[in-house]
Amino acid sequence: MTSELHAMIAIARERLDDIPDGITFADFPPGSRAAAAADYPGKLGELLGGSDGPRCQAIVIYPSSIVNEAQYLCEEYEGGGERWFCFGHVEDNPLLIERNSGHVYQFPHPVQEWRISDHLEFLSRDVPEFFNRYAMGEQYLTVAPGRDRWYDFMLTLSPRT
Questions:
Q1: pTM to 2 decimals?
Q2: 118 neighbors 108 (Cβ within 8 angstroms)
Q3: Among 68, 83, 98, 160, which is most exposed with the fewest C-beta within 10 angstroms?
Q4: Which sequence spans correspond to the domains of the chain?
């Protein structure tokens, strides 16, 4: 999965470089060897090794330089930071890794304020699967608030999206 994921990121990065305002809707900073080797839950390091803080319009993955600062968001949920690890967001809704399982969850309604409910929706078995299916795949519109420039761009990347 890691080499496939990194290859997809490299293709997106290269194609975005050809779009003058591509940075306005997506960004794939270089990967971090230190982040790849770090002990993050849910295989987060695999993603950060390919791009340390990728942004796909509505979906933002925190770079290794600030991901630990976002852990205060976990306190809103049962089990707090001992159970959850916040690694990014969709719009204003946190993306969470359940530390014990590595599974990825989010608040299920992008339109509703996440702080008024503790109900979380399972998205994937780990971060690379989440990124492949949601940030760069066919499930993007199930978590994003609607069709946007990233989605239209993503459709040009490969036939599988």
A1: 0.91
A2: no
A3: 160
A4: 2-154
